[in-house]
Amino acid sequence: MRPLPLSLALALLCSAGSLGAQNPNAPRLIPIPREIVRADAPARFTAEITVGAGADADDRFAAQDFAAAMTARGFKADVSSSDRGWHVTLLRAGSDAARRVLERENLQFTPAMEAEGYVLITSAEGATVIGANAVGVFYGLQTLKQLITGAGNGAQLHRVAVRDWPAMKHRGVQDDISRGPVPTLEYQKRQVRIAAAFKINIFSIYFEHTLAFNSHPIIAPPGGAMSHDDVRELVAFARSYHVTILPQQQTFGHLHHALKLDIYADVAEQPHGHVLAPGVPRSLEIVREIYAELDSLFPSPLVHLGADETFELGLGRTKPAVDAQTIGPVYLDYVRRTVETVRQPGKRYLFWGDIAMNHPELVSRLPKDLIAVGWDYWSRSNFDRYLKPFRDAGMETWIAPGVNNWNRIWPQTSQALANIQGFARDGQRGGATGMINTTWDDNGDAIYEQNWHGIAFGAAAAWQAGESDTTAFKRAFGSVFYGDTTGKIDRAYAHLASSHEAIGRSGAGDGLAYLFFLDPWTSEGVFESARLLPVLQQARIHAESALVLIAQARRQAHLRELTALDAMELGARRLDWLGMKFQLADEIAQRTIRATTPGRTDVDWKELSELTGINGRLQDMRDGFVLTRELFERSWRAENRPYWLQNNLARYDAEIITWVRRMARMDQVRRQHARTRTIPSAVELGVPAALVQSGARARP
Fold first, then answer.
1. Burial per residue of 50-76, b for 16 or more beta-carbon CB atoms within 10 angstroms, e otherwise
2. Beta 371-375 vs 434-439: how paired, if at all?
3. Would the pLDDT of 25 be above 90?
C-alpha cells in the first residue's frame, strides 16, 4: 500500500481543531489555518525585513501593506528586490521556484487551495508565501503578520509550515449605517483594511435612506449619507484588499425615513409607515430607479435586496390582497417582481429569508438564482430550519449571525460567539456558501470599534472548517488584534462578558441601553432596581477589573488599535456606571427616607452632606453621566460623521439635568434645615412613594 505524503499525514494530526493538543508550539492565529504541518518553538526576532514583490501590481500592494504593518510595530521593513535581512519571497503556485519549495518541504498545493489558498513557510532565514493568485498571496501575508509577535527585544518569530484555504467562499461583515451612526469615508477604509486582515472578502453596507440618490434626493439626510464619490473611492480602496463592497438597499420594509415624507404617501402600506405597498405600480418604479443608480456605483456581482421584517404588510393598502391570498403569496410575489424589475446581467441578488422560510411550500415560486440569507442572532442547538426551505427548493443559501451589539452599551460577547459558532457550523454542514456577520445600530448609539471581537470570530468561523473553538479564539484575540503579549486584554474581555452575565442573571436585562438611561426613581426604575441591586456589586467588580487590565495593557510599547481600546474602556465604564447609578440612587433614597423620618430632631449637616455637597452622592450621579458622555463622544467622533450625534448626547444631557435639578433641590433643603431645622418629606424631595411606603431597608 502506498504511504500517504508526509504533508497529508501530518495534516491529519495537526488540523485546526486538534493542533493545540498535538503541538504546544502552535501559534495563536485568527483564523486558525487549515493545516499547520510544522510548528517549532518561537525564537527571538530582531532582523531587518525585506519583501520581494516582483512585477505583479497586486502582489506589490500586498507586500507594501505587510511592510507598513511591520514598520508600525517598530521593525525595519521595506519592499525590495534585494534579499538582504529576513526576506519574504512571494511565489505563484505554478512557478518552478514554487514547485522546488513545495518539493523540498514535502508539501502539496491542491486544487482546493487554488481560489484563495496559500502555503506559508517561515524559518530563521526568511519566509515564503505561495499562492495560485494574488488573493492567496495576500492572505498568506496576513497570516505572516500574526506569526511575528511582540516588539523590540521581546519580538518573536513563530517558525511554521502552513497549508491553508477557506471553508466558505463568501465571508462577510455588514455595517448598518441607517439607524444612527454614519461612518466617515476614512473610517470605512479602516473597517475594510482590518476586515481583510482576518480574510473577510465581503463588506456589506446596509442602506435604508443613507445613500444619496440623484433620482430621489429628498430621502438622504444632509450630512448623513454616502455620496457617489464616497462609494467610488471606497470600492476602489477595497478592491486592493480583495474585498467586495456588497450593497444592501432595502426594497420592501424598513423604509420609514422615505415613507414618512408625503411625496411618497401614495406608495406606503400605511401612512408614514415602513413598508412599500406591493400593489402600487409606482413602488416597483421607485425601486427600479434607485437600483439603476446602485448598479452604476457598485460593480459587485452580488446585491442584497433586504426585504425582511415587513410587519405592516396586509394592514393597509394590501389588506384586500392579503385577506384573499394570505401573507405568503403576496410577499413572495412582490419579491419575485422586484428581482424581475432590478435584474442586471452578471448580478446575483440576495434577500433575507425570515418571511419566506415560514412558507416553504411557496419558496419554489422565487427565481432559482436568488440567494436566501437565513438570519438568527441567538445561541441555539441547531440552525437548520433557517436554510432547509431554500435548500429543498434548490436555492443557494448564506447565513447571517450577529455580534449582538445592538441596544447594548457593550456587545454581549458570550451570546455572539455562541451564535456565530453554531450558525457557521450548521451552515457549512448544510451547504451554505457564504456568511454575513451582522452589526446593527438599532438604538442609534452603537460604537463600531467595540465590535472587532465578534467580527474577528465571525471571520474565523467562516474560514475554518466545522465548529470553531471559542476558547482558542479568546486566548488569541488580544495578541492578534492589539499586539498584547501579556494576556491582559483577553482577561479584560472575559471580565466584561462576566459583567454582562451578572446583570443578565437579575432578570432585568443584560446591559441593555434602556437600563443605562433608565431613571431609578421612576416606577419602572424602582421595579428594575429591585431586581438589579443584588447583582450589581459583582457586575461592577468585573467591569472595574477590566478597567484595571486595560490600563495595565496600555503600558506596552507598540500596542495596536488604540481607538478600539478606547471603545473597550468606554464599554467597561458604562457597565460600571450602570451599576453605580442604581446603587447610588438607592442609597440616596434610603438616606433621604431616614433623614426625613417624622419626629427626627438629630439630623445634622454631615448627614445631609452625604446627599449633596463636596463628593455628595447626588454629585456622583451628575458626574457619572458627564464622564460617560465625554468618553462616548470621543469614540463616536473617532469613526462617525457628526450626523445623529446630538440625538445621543441629548440622552446624556437629559440625565445630567435630572440629577443637577435634584442636587439643587437638596442644596436648598440643606439651607432650609440650617435656618429652620425642618426638612420636606421624602416624597416631596422626589423619592418614589413605593420606596417610602415599603420602609427604609437599612444599609450601612
1. bbbbeeeebbbbbbebbbebbeebebe
2. unpaired
3. no
Q: Is the pLDDT of residue 16 over 70?
A: no
**DSSP-assigned beta bridge partners for residue 84:** none
Q: What is the DSSP letter of 111?
A: G
* Cα–Cα distance, 98 to 130 (Å, whole number): 7
Residues 6+ apart with CB under 8 A from 179: 440, 441, 442, 443, 444, 446
CA distance 271 to 265: 6
| Residues 398-417, mean pLDDT to the nearest whole number | 96
Q: What architecture (CATH level 2) is domain 170-467?
A: Alpha-Beta Barrel (3.20)
State which fold the 6-164 domain adopts.
Answer: Chitobiase; domain 2 (3.30.379)
Q: What's the pTM?
A: 0.95
Q: Above 60 in pLDDT, residue 309?
A: yes
Q: In angstroms, rounded to a whole number, what is the distance separating the alpha carbons of residues 304 and 474? A: 32
Cβ-contact 318, 265 below 8 angstroms? no
354 near 375, Cβ under 8 Å? yes
Q: How far apart are CA 195 and CA 170, in angstroms?
A: 13
Question: What does 532-558 look like in DSSP terms, one character per residue?
Answer: HHHHHHHHHHHHHHHHHHHHHHTTSTT
- The helix or strand, by DSSP H or E, that contains position 659, with its residue range, turns out to be helix 645-676
Distance CA 36, CA 16 (A): 7
Hey, where are the domains in the chain?
Answer: 6-164, 170-467, 490-694
- pLDDT (mean) for 503-513: 83
Share the mean pLDDT of the chain: 94
Nearest to 362 by CA among 338, 384, 318, 395: 395
Q: Which helix (H) or strand (E) holds 297?
A: helix 281-297
Per-residue H/E/C for 611-636:
CCCCCCHHHHHHHHHHHHHHHHHHHH
Q: CATH number of 490-694: 1.20.120, 3.90.1150, 2.60.40, 1.10.357? A: 1.20.120
Measured CA to CA in angstroms, residue 54 lies from 51, 90, 139, 423 at distances of: 9, 8, 17, 41
Residue 81 has pLDDT above 60, yes or no: yes
CA atoms within 13 A on the CB side of 695: 2
Residue 59 CA to residue 65 CA, distance in Å, equals 10
Cβ-proximal residues to 103 (8 Å cutoff; 6+ apart), any chain:
none
